[in-house]
Specification:
It contains 46 helices and 21 strands. With 1397 residues, it is of the alpha/beta class. Residues 452-527, 788-826 are annotated as: Disordered.
Length: 1397
């Protein structure tokens, strides 16, 4: 059974206050939850649906207060009531999980679908029952119509009979609508609850996987699972119960038709079978095409997610154009797949609209030719039955298509949920261990797993070849354009690096019908991919570990030796591979079957034994989008003394003083507004505050300057954590003499272990340590001497001069000391936000939004042509029914059979072809609009400034736009636009024909239109706002999901899964609640429309009764049928119009991205082609701030760097070192001052060109999914020999030869390997100016020496600016710049090394 997450203990997160709403104190980030209880729900504490009476429930009167409130004021999330009982996500997951746990081991069939049906079998039965009951009034309506026509035809029957029949008809129509809408509401809620349960299962699963178990699904795909696939069940649940009434209606109609048409209806039965068969086949093909659409969507979302997550490195390297093209190519592929899918949908629509018309024609023509004669009332009743028969023939294939699409989506989710999980039992907390033991591993092997082999790999290759054929022409055109662009650049033409709007628009139009060649980011591997054996995927071999309680253990080794893997193995992130498995499968080629067998054999318990609680510090700091305080506490209880002590020892006190909100400063996603050192110390503080028994630290001090690093060692590792078991992976070998034991990793094995004294006696060990340490011990002493000397110089300078320009506070380099910080409490009272509040955005869908949307379709001609064709379609449909009535009237006339038969055939063909042609035109137009919108969104997104947009915008918000909102544009808009115009055309044509027959019958139309317009105006504000809220509440789900995937190991280690699962429950509940009210508003509106429709029908039928003695039955019968059609189409129009309004909210949300701030691309001329020729850099009084509301980061910074100089930049974390690099690349524009490169002010040249001329190696190594060759040379500017030479020098030859594909974010590489690749990538760019932003922090000293020699060789004529924490990194520098709070405090040092002598 599933655990009950609703139960909470005192030390767990309490998610509800007394009102049942979420406690705002739990959400300090700007996500819209902080104001939840300011106004409160307009309904009080209880959901109004639960306390509503039976009539209020069925007529949805309980929704009226929300509509009334929304008409006057803007609805916000806090105005909504709590969810009804047993609607919450936790309940849905537990309900679904019971059956999923039962069926999930079935590898064949559809166990997930089976689990859904079993979990909700009672609800599905009730939905089927409601659908069945709603069909009974529909069946009775044709009888009432025939009886009413008999009343009109019988002059002797009294008026009261007609009045009774009229009211009976209206009552049956109203009853059918109310039952049907009640069923719709229940079905939509059922679907949304299933969807919430699925999302919770997906989230739960994401917490149980690691890089070793998940080789198939990327974050972009998981986003699609949540945003697209899980939502398919809502449509499925809505449509499925309708199947229960279709067979009933079908059987009833067939029986009635045999009564009306006798044996001649056998022809109709044959026609019905053929119609259903054709539509069924088309539905199957459509569903298969849908699977390919989803695959294309996954590829696009994967790349967009990767691009957004790597936006900084993309901008720094000026790869925006390349990534824009890659996204466009994947988008073109997706659009192409959509067009293929819509082409099948078109055939389906043709069958849906054309075949029922031919059914009526076939049945009547065969009956008339067979000599059957009809009374007028019988003929009109038969016509009504045949119209009723259209629904089964139309919608049964559609339902089949929905079911198949649902099956495809559930299979995708099922594959993920059935994926392997980490073996959490591998780590056993054993209380029976020896009293002095903390961690014990006895000779175990571990693996990161092998790559999954796609069973359909060969098929995919064939499809790829076909696709490349289709794309070939467009690819030629792109290459030709690039060649011309290159020629223009050589001639110094004013053409820009970025695609300008006009060119891109033309390119888009030229290739919109087929995508360009798939030059995806996953370019071909560096060579033939090496066949991998089982023995090759064993990462750690024969690991034996016995760590004592309270022991301080240091793990060292070269890059890729397995240090981080050992930490991950202790945390159960790796797969255990027994000696028996290695022996049995060693020479087996890795494939799916072998991987599955390895997993089956790996389910051992207690491979790793631990005797206490664990905490973990990741190598790449994991920071949540919350306040610093929240990140440190990590939901632990506040202990102020311990908290203040943690802040001091982790050297965060000075940072809190500099930040506006102190420890209540909100941290942007992934710690975007913190420096690398600050992120590392916040991550470390989380583990320190937790006070666990065992602390696993994966090189957390590499990003720190030497002084801060020394204080961390003294105050944290030696003092604060004294008595704890500490395991530290590090390259800081100068501290090895201070640890209890050293473990040396070599080639993924523990080569040596012992104390510092023990290892010193071994010549081999001494060589390894000396190689790693080299001069580091001496450098540490020299660094201390340098700091003391500079401190003495600062004091002397301050005594002799009032100027503070050259002052240098050693604490700014080394961190705060107890003496400097008299403050004893670091709890701030003032908060500081950075992320924008999406809940505060206002959406106003006025006529301008519609105008902008239809203008973006490319041309009004398409819309005008489609409208004309739909008008023709409606006219042909009206005429078909009209001529059938006249045929019956003139049935005895000679020659009438041929005359009317061919006329009706012509109108029927025109009917089908018109709607098909209109759909093609409108579909292409709407898809062009969607494609243009997506293209512009990508362009605007990638050109947005990091500091003014990406730092403030949650990733989930962007992904929501690119997934759900764009999907609405792609999938829903083509149908909505078509249906709106279709309804208007039908209404117009029906009114026209009705006016010709009997103008007086239209007396109720003005009332209907005015009432409908007023109702829409009264309702639409609430619906629009609720639709917006429903979309907005998706963003936090995605943001939280992304954070969870990144920090899953930390979450598991701290045993915080429950709290994160509950957070996900809360976020999904908010979305579920908003959907509940969107659905309720829809039904409320539909029932009110039925009120208007009922009044209209009473008036119309009243006129028919009143003119009984002055009109013939043919006129009244025709009039009655058109009035029924008019009623249905008016209702459908208002319903579709409201759906269109909701879709336009999605469009407006996407359109908002087009209004975000932009960097200054294409605003200045290109520099000369040989610029910069020398590489001289001048900073002249530079002032810079990250955002207008923040403090200056650089203050009047001035310095000069001569051509070819190697300059080091040092200073305490947060002093502005990295900002110097960002200013040079114009990632952040300067507020004042100027930066000159070879005498050219960089703000006066093209931004893309500037960034192409500068190479930066950032703090955080960023890699892309693809081959090693692509990651080394993304722009394909270097030949193979040059790359191989560099690969060999960087000791990446083994990785190159393996042909190993680099995973997303480089997850299958060590941090050191990732940094090596980034450094090699920079070398291959051969720029005149090189910026190294603490780029060697995670590289051991031996490897760093190799890199430094390589840099000296390759960049001997380049200007190099190095930001470093280790002195050996800048020992060869020509000068050093020391920064403090954005100011240069010591400058023009001719020989930096003299200060360390």
């Amino acid at each position: 059974m599933r655990r009950k997450l609703s139960d909470s203990s005192d030390d767990e997160l309490n998610f509800t206050n007394g009102t049942g709403r979420s406690d705002p104190l739990l959400y300090t980030k700007a996500d819209g939850y902080a104001d939840l209880d300011k106004q409160g729900s307009i309904f009080g504490d209880e959901n109004p649906y639960q306390k509503a009476g039976i009539f209020s429930r069925w007529l949805f009167n309980w929704v009226t207060p929300l509509v009334r409130f929304g008409y006057k004021e803007q609805i916000k999330l806090e105005h909504l009531s709590a969810l009804p009982d047993k609607y919450d996500t936790a309940y849905q997951e537990n309900k679904l999980a019971v059956y999923w746990d039962k069926y999930k081991h079935n590898k064949t069939g559809h166990p997930l679908i089976k689990a859904i049906f079993m979990a909700y079998k009672g609800e599905f039965f009730y939905a089927f029952l409601l659908s069945f009951i709603s069909s009974l009034p529909e069946i009775a309506i044709p009888f009432v119509i025939q009886r009413f026509l008999d009343f009109i035809d019988d002059p002797n029957e009294g008026v009261w009979s007609g009045i009774l029949l009229a009211f009976l008809y209206v009552a049956l129509s109203f009853l059918s609508r109310v039952i049907m809408e009640q069923g719709t509401f229940f079905q939509m809620q059922l679907g949304s609850k299933c969807s919430a349960g699925l999302i919770a299962l997906i989230y739960d699963k994401a917490l149980k996987i690691s890089s070793s178990t998940n080789k198939k699904f990327t974050q972009g795909e998981l986003v699609n699972f949540i945003q697209v696939d899980a939502k398919k069940i809502i449509m499925f649940a809505w449509r499925l119960p309708g199947l229960s009434k279709l067979p009933i209606i079908l059987i009833y109609c067939i029986i009635m038709c045999f009564i009306y048409f006798s044996y001649t209806f056998y022809s109709g039965c044959i026609f019905i079978v053929c119609t259903i068969a054709v539509n069924y086949v088309l539905a199957i093909f459509t569903a298969r095409r849908q699977a390919k659409v989803l695959t294309a969507k996954d590829s696009r979302m994967r790349l967009i997610t990767e691009t957004i997550n790597s936006i900084k490195i993309i901008k720094l390297n000026s790869w925006i154009e390349r990534f824009t093209k890659q996204i466009k190519k994947l988008r073109d592929t997706e659009i192409w797949m959509l067009k293929l899918r819509f082409s099948l949908t078109l055939l389906n629509l043709l069958a849906i609209f054309l075949l029922p018309s031919f059914l009526i024609l076939t049945v009547f023509s065969v009956a008339i030719r067979s000599g059957i004669r009809f009374r007028a009332s019988t003929a009109f009743a038969a016509l009504q039955v045949l119209n009723l028969l259209r629904d089964p023939t139309r919608w049964l294939p559609f339902f089949i298509g929905v079911m198949m699409e649902f099956g495809v989506s559930m299979k995708r989710i099922q594959d993920f949920l059935q994926g392997e999980e980490i073996n959490h039992k591998m780590l056993e907390y054993d209380k029976n261990m020896a009293p002095d033991q903390a961690i014990l591993i006895n000779g175990a092997n571990f693996s990161w797993g092998g790559e999954k082999i796609d069973d359909n790999e060969e098929k995919d290759k064939e499809k790829e070849k076909e696709l490349k054929k289709i794309q070939k022409e467009a690819h030629k055109e792109i290459r030709e354009n690039e060649r011309k662009k290159s020629e223009d650049l050589e001639q110094n033409s004013p053409k820009r690096y970025m695609i300008n709007d006009e060119e891109e628009s033309k390119e888009n139009l030229s290739d919109s019908s087929s995508p360009s060649e798939d030059e995806t980011l996953s370019t071909s591997s560096s060579g033939k991919k090496k066949e991998m054996l089982v023995k090759d995927i064993v990462t750690l071999k024969n690991i034996g570990l016995d760590i004592k309680k309270g022991e301080f253990v240091c793990i060292i080794g070269e890059i890729g030796s397995g240090k981080s893997s050992l930490i991950n193995a202790i945390l159960s992130d790796l797969i255990y591979v027994s000696d028996e498995t290695v022996s049995d499968l060693s020479e087996n080629v890795v494939d799916d079957k072998v991987i599955e067998e390895i997993f089956d054999r790996s389910r051992h318990e207690g491979i790793i034994k631990a005797s206490g609680s664990l905490s973990y510090v990741q190598q790449i700091p994991w920071i949540q989008n919350k306040t610093i305080r929240d990140n440190i506490l990590f939901e632990s209880e506040m202990d102020e003394d311990r908290y203040n002590r943690t802040v001091e020892t982790c050297q965060l006190a000075k940072d809190f003083e500099q930040l506006d909100g102190g420890d209540l400063t909100e941290i942007g996603e992934k710690g975007i507004n913190l420096s690398g050192g600050q992120k590392a110390r916040v991550s470390l503080a989380r583990a320190v505050y937790a006070q666990k028994d065992i602390i696993l630290m994966d090189d957390p001090i590499s990003a720190l300057d030497a002084g801060t690093k020394a204080k961390i060692f003294d105050q944290v590792f030696d003092k604060e954590l004294q008595g704890k078991t500490r395991i530290l992976v590090t390259h800081a070998v100068d501290f090895l003499d201070r640890v209890d034991r050293i473990i040396i990793m070599d080639h993924c094995k523990i080569k040596y272990t012992g104390t510092y004294e023990e290892l010193q006696g071994n010549e081999v060990i001494q060589h390894i340590i000396e190689t790693l340490k080299k001069v580091s011990k001496k450098e540490e002493e020299e660094e201390v001497a340098e700091i003391q000397e500079i401190e003495l110089q600062r004091k002397t300078s301050s005594e002799g001069s009032d100027s503070n320009k050259n002052k240098f506070d050693s604490d700014e380099l080394d961190g705060p000391s107890q003496d400097d910080n008299k403050k004893t409490s670091y709890l701030s009272e003032k908060s500081s936000k950075i992320t924008s509040d999406e809940f505060e955005e206002k959406v106003s869908v006025d006529w301008n939004v519609y105008f902008k949307y239809f203008c973006s379709n490319g041309t009004w001609i398409a819309l005008f042509s489609g409208t004309l064709l739909i008008v023709g379609y409606a006219w042909c449909g009206i005429q078909t029914n009209r001529y059938i009535g006249r045929w019956i009237e003139d049935i005895e006339e000679e020659g009438s059979f041929s005359k009317y038969l061919w006329t009706i055939i012509a109108y029927s063909i025109g009917f089908g072809l018109s709607i098909s042609a209109a759909f093609v035109i409108l579909m292409l137009s709407v898809l062009r609009s969607s494609n243009n919108l997506h293209r512009n969104m990508v362009k605007k997104t990638l050109m947005a400034p990091i500091n003014l947009y990406f730092d403030k915008t949650p990733t989930g918000k962007l992904l929501n736009r690119y997934s759900k909102d764009i999907n609405k544009m792609d999938a829903d808009m083509p149908f909505l636009v078509t249906f709106v115009i279709e309804c208007l055309s039908w209404v117009g044509a029906t009114i026209f024909i009705t006016a010709l027959i009997s103008p007086w019958s239209l007396i109720s139309i003005p009332f209907v239109m005015i009432s409908g317009a007023f109702l829409i105006r009264y309702y639409i504000r609430s619906f629009r706002e609720m639709t917006r809220i429903e979309s907005v509440t998706n963003s936090p789900i995605l943001s939280n999901f992304g954070e969870t995937i990144t920090g899953a190991t930390t979450i598991r280690c701290f045993k915080n899964q429950k709290r994160f699962i509950q957070t996900n429950y809360k976020l999904v509940d908010d979305n579920l609640n908003s959907f509940f009210w969107v659905n309720s508003l829809n039904i409320w509106f539909s029932i009110r429309l039925q009120y208007i429709s009922s009044i209209m029908m009473i008036v119309s039928l009243g006129f028919c009764i009143g003119f009984k003695y002055s009109s013939d039955i043919e006129t009244v019968g025709t009039l009655l049928i058109y009035l029924l059609m008019l009623q249905a189409n008016v209702l459908w129009f208002f319903r579709i119009a409201s759906e269109m309004e909701g879709a336009m909210v999605s469009y407006d949300r996407c359109d908002q991205i087009l209004k975000i701030p932009q960097e200054a691309f294409n605003t200045h001329p290109l520099p000369p082609s040989n610029w910069p020729a020398r590489g001289k850099i001048v900073f002249d009084n530079i002032c810079l701030r990250y955002r207008p509301e923040t403090e200056l980061v650089l203050r009047n910074l001035s310095f000069e760097i001569e051509p070819g100089q190697k300059v080091g930049v040092i200073g305490r974390t947060g002093a502005g070192k990295s900002t110097v690099c960002l200013a040079l690349c114009r990632i952040i524009e300067c507020e004042s001052g100027s930066i000159l490169i070879d005498g050219v002010d960089i703000k006066n040249i093209d931004l893309a060109a500037l960034r192409k001329k500068i190479t930066i190696i950032p703090q955080d190594p960023i890699l892309f999914e693809g081959s090693l060759k692509f990651n080394l040379d993304p722009e394909e500017n270097c030949d193979q020999a040059t790359i191989l030479r560099l690969v060999s020098k960087a000791k990446l030859q083994e990785l190159w030869d393996s042909g190993k594909e680099i995973a997303l974010n480089g997850e299958n590489l060590s941090s050191g390997e990732k940094q090596l690749i980034c450094i090699c990538r920079a070398i291959l760019r051969k720029s005149k100016i090189i910026l190294m932003d603490e780029a060697t922090a995670n590289i051991d000293i031996k490897t760093e020496e190799i890199i430094q020699k390589l840099i000296v060789e390759e960049f001997k004529e380049s200007t190099v600016i190095t930001i470093a924490h280790r002195l050996n990194t800048i020992l060869n520098s020509d000068k050093v710049l020391i920064l403090e709070k954005g100011e240069l405090v010591h400058r023009e040092i001719d020989d930096f090394r003299e200060y360390f002598a």
